[in-house]
Design brief:
The chain is of the alpha+beta class. Helices cover 35% and strands 23% of the residues. A hairpin with a 2-residue loop joins strand 33 and strand 34. It binds one RNA strand through helix 7, helix 9, strand 20, strand 21 and strand 35.
Length: 846
RNA sequence: GCCCUCGUGGUGAAAUUGGUAGACACAAAGGACUUAAAAUCCUUGCCCUUUUGGGAGUGCCAGUUCGAGUCUGGCCGAGGGCACCA
């Protein structure tokens, strides 16, 4: 038997697709469009299994939609700015641009070997001037619209390298390269006013019906709308501070007020800048990281002032005012009203500083005797110990009621607050899009004039400097405009900015004047299906949604608010982890499995420790190189395997055995193909066979609906079922006249998953132009069905009956059935539940 | 710590969306073919019964229902996100 030569076949078809630009797309208003987009990759060096999975999922969909007659846009590009290039370049004395571009070439070749139906004529790279120059235009447009501003913000500062660190570069509070203890430091930075659109971004979520609920919930929580009240607390003390404004969602617990906590950056802090203890305290606070997690987990510490805050509902009561490390200047007004009995964080703080803990909410039914002792009670209940508020249901009625009282007495104001912070886009790095701004001698910022745009990144620069490399480029740093000398902005833009609009660029990749053409985005946008990792659920997706609104804002020609119509978040590719006896990570190809035990390859004496299966990552060495796998088994086998084992939205375990079985399956399909082909050549074809007709229609129906629902793993099962059916069927059947037509349809159904194999087989039976097959609804129905008979809810029989059988008729059959007789004899039937074509449940009087 | 998601055989999973739990595959055991091995094919798969058959069973505990993997509440466990990785 001739074996299937995947190498030859795959190369042949890939070349043919390349030569004919088979997947290049043009705007065609007569055709319905389908824009399929997968999150574009960072060109880190080689593609990894996560890419294989992501792009296979998108490719299956694109090929299917294309066969369905859509004008499919399926582009690919490179998210090419970012830290890894800068680090690799710095460590190996390379140019980030060369490093990036050579990675792009490698990865593009690897993607082509997967047989993806990509329109490579639309390839873009965010680090090319052609791309980032438009981004500078957008930046200046947004600046003009008042959506960009400058403010001070904290960063992770490495005092040895004199550089800003990303959160991931801070390991256990120390800089990853220098080992210095990382400090919080304030820097003046550029911000996008995403908070202006808080409500709009929240409302927009309601329209995204084809997004996973979990992503919508995450974004909703991220935006963090809360209803509450702003309260001005009267302040007594020896400083010229009369009042401090607070936002709270629980004004109803004011009678449990026991301290007021301020951020160390609160304006009141200006009176403490000469206080040595306060300075020390502030330094102590700066050691807590900048992440929310670090603040939440870290110890709560405070600095007591001699100020007192007055309880607005009980003017005779004064409580101390503290500075505290857990209060953020970004949220509310940088001041928190502390009610320890009903907030765990406040409770911990109060315990530590021995402050009053007064219970003001009791769970329902415990109004008489309830007191908070060991932990805060944040749940619902009834207000107690609260004077005129007593008895109100908390928080459902009490919050609203309290706000009314505060408003009436002019002590507070109803307010909606959002957690969403403005987007800081300044990065103190070289390898990013330059921010088109310059500063005059007073330090005031000005847009770079149009005639000086784009601002190009300087080349051949020294990356091994302290601080920001661009800041050290004396030849680049200064610009002279109209005879006046300016200093350039040396920060570059966050790479999330690049990925916030790239999907527009794919619509007009060659437009040179502006980032996109209106008629092209009008046709192609929105993206019909966006596919990527759930790790982008919040930031990238929210930033993109913001970016569309920002361009839309005061722009009559731009009508997009939601860029991604449907979203699919795929799971990760996981593999077991291995360690040797010195606890060093081992890669799977260093490990050998004998029986149930794992050994170091070539050394049966050293047992390898097997760890849990985790997302493939270089640091844990549990990676499988897709290129190597494609070479050994072929692209179709890899595509088949990566889809087969788990639903695409869940994590999948990489398994060599699973991979081999996919490979074998293709070989079996090839053998089947040869049998069918020989039957087709046989001239005696006199019988028309209904069975295969019916089977084919059922298969088309199943695969079509599973494609629509992203049940790609089930499609693979459908493919196995199809093989199992056909191989048995052909054993027992002579030649039939309708074999070719049915086989053709089956091959087309397989083609989105295994395009090379299917193309070759279709070609071999002489078919080159084809569409997605339709199925006949009448043909997929069975006349005979199996119906479940339950007695008192327990399954007792499975009966073969005519489809559509009536309740009374079925009951007669049941009564006569020998196996069921014993249950029914001498019993009275109380009730019969009948679900047509499904089941009958007979309830007996016991 | 906060937010989100997910728990079904030895393993990955399927289940017409409240109606036959375990499709399809991997692994294992037994068998067939073979001098032998590989490859391939067949059978088996929790407990009781020789069989027919019966029982338990979808992380744990309750609840709703004629009926729960699916709905509700509580608990336990795993994973993801937490604003400068992309």
């Amino acid at each position: 038997m001739e074996r299937y030569n995947f190498k030859e076949v795959e190369e042949k078809w890939q070349k043919s697709w390349d030569d004919t630009n088979a997947f290049s797309t043009k705007l065609d208003k007569n055709k319905k469009k389908f824009y399929c987009l997968e999150m574009f990759p960072y060109p880190s060096g080689k593609i990894h299994m996560g890419h294989v999975r992501n792009y296979t999922i998108g490719d299956v969909l694109s090929r299917y939609k294309s066969l369905k007659g859509f004008n499919v846009l399926h582009p690919m590009g490179w998210d090419a700015f970012g830290m890894p290039a800068e680090n690799a370049a710095r460590d190996n004395n390379l140019d980030p641009k060369e490093w990036t571009n050579s990675n792009i070439i490698t990865m593009k070749n690897q993607l082509k070997k997967l047989g993806l139906s990509i329109d490579w004529e639309r390839e873009i790279s965010t680090c090319s001037e052609d791309y980032y120059k438009h981004q500078q235009t957008f930046f200046l447009e947004l600046l003009k619209k008042g959506l960009v501003y400058r403010k001070e913000n904290y960063v992770n500062w490495d005092p040895i390298d004199e550089t800003v660190l990303a959160n991931e570069q801070v390991i256990d509070g120390r800089g990853w390269r220098s080992g210095a203890i990382v400090e919080r430091k304030k820097l003046s930075q550029w911000f996008f006013k995403i908070s202006k659109f808080s409500q709009d971004l929240l409302d927009g979520l309601e329209t995204l019906n084809a997004w996973p609920n979990k992503v919508k919930t995450m974004q909703k929580n991220w935006i963090g709308k809360s209803f509450g009240c702003e309260i001005d607390f009267k302040i007594n003390g020896d400083l010229p501070v009369n009042k401090i404004r607070c936002f709270t969602t629980r004004p109803d617990t004011l009678f449990g007020f026991s301290f007021l906590a301020l951020s160390v950056d609160h304006e009141v802090s200006k009176y403490f800048l000469e206080n040595e203890d306060f300075i020390k305290f502030k330094e102590e606070c700066s050691k807590t990281g900048t992440t929310e997690e670090a603040i939440a987990v870290g110890e709560k510490i405070g600095f007591k002032t001699n100020l007192k805050a007055v309880n607005p509902l009980k003017p005779e009561e004064e409580v101390p005012v503290y500075f505290a490390n857990f209060v953020l200047m970004d949220y509310g007004f940088g001041a928190v009203f502390g009610c320890p009995a009903h907030d765990q964080r406040d409770f911990d703080f109060a315990k530590k500083y021995k402050l009053n803990i007064k219970t003001v909410v009791a769970p329902f039914g415990k109004e008489e005797s309830y007191t908070v002792i060991d932990e805060a009670y944040p749940g619902p209940g009834v207000l107690i110990n609260s004077d005129f508020l007593n008895g109100l249901e908390a928080p459902s009625k009490s919050v609203d009621e309290t706000i009314k009282i505060l408003e009436k007495r002019n002590l507070g104001k109803r307010k909606v607050n959002y957690r969403l912070k403005d987007w800081g886009v300044s990065r103190q790095r070289y390898w990013g899009c330059p921010i088109p701004i310059m500063y005059d001698e007073n330090g005031d910022s000005h847009p770079i004039p149009e005639s000086f745009l784009p601002v190009k990144l300087p080349e051949n620069i020294n990356l091994k400097v302290k601080g920001n490399p661009l800041d050290n480029e004396e030849n680049w740093k200064y610009i002279s405009v109209d005879g006046k000398k300016y200093t350039r902005e040396t920060d570059t833009l966050d790479t999330f900015v690049c990925s916030s609009w790239y999907y527009l660029r794919f619509c007009s990749p060659n437009e040179s004047k502006y980032g996109f053409k209106n008629d092209e985005i009008d046709y192609w946008m929105p993206v019909d299906q966006y596919i990527g990792g759930v790790e982008h659920a919040i930031l990238h997706l929210l930033y993109s949604r913001f970016f569309m609104r920002a361009i839309n804002y005061r722009n009559e020609n731009f009508n997009i608010t939601e860029p991604f119509q449907s979203l699919f978040t795929q799971g990760m590719v996981c593999h077991e982890t291995y360690k040797d006896n010195k606890n060093n990570w081992l890669s799977p190809d260093q490990v050998e499995k004998v029986g149930n035990k794992y050994f170091l390859k070539g050394n049966k004496n050293e047992i390898v420790k097997v760890g849990p299966s985790e997302s493939m990552s270089k640091s844990k060495k549990n990676v499988i190189d897709p290129e190597h796998i494609i070479e050994s088994y072929g692209a179709d086998s890899v595509r088949l395997f990566i889809l087969s084992d788990s639903p695409p939205e869940k994590d999948v375990q990489w398994s060599e055995q699973g991979m081999v079985s996919s490979y074998k399956f293709i070989q079996k399909l090839w053998a089947l193909h040869k049998i069918i082909k020989s039957k087709l050549l046989d001239e005696k074809k006199d019988t028309f066979d209904e069975n295969i007709e019916k089977f084919t229609n059922q298969t088309i129906s199943k695969i079509t609906s599973n494609l629509e629902k992203f049940n790609y793993n089930v499609i693979i099962a459908n493919m196995y079922e199809t093989y199992n059916y056909l191989i048995n069927y052909l054993k027992n059947n002579k030649n039939m006249s309708n074999l070719e037509n049915n086989y053709k349809k089956i091959l087309i159904c397989f083609s989105p998953v295994i395009p090379h194999f299917s193309s070759e087989c279709l070609y071999e039976i002489g078919i080159s132009n084809y569409k997605w097959p339709e199925y006949d609804e009448k043909l997929i129905q069975d006349d005979k069905i199996k119906i479940v008979i339950q007695i008192n809810g327990k399954k007792r029989a499975l009966l073969d009956v005519e489809k559509g059988i009536e309740k009374s008729e079925l009951l007669e059959i049941v009564r006569k059935d020998k196996n069921l007789e014993k249950y029914l004899v001498e019993k009275e039937i109380k009730k019969v539940i009948f679900v047509e074509n499904r089941l009958m449940n007979i309830l007996l009087n016991e």
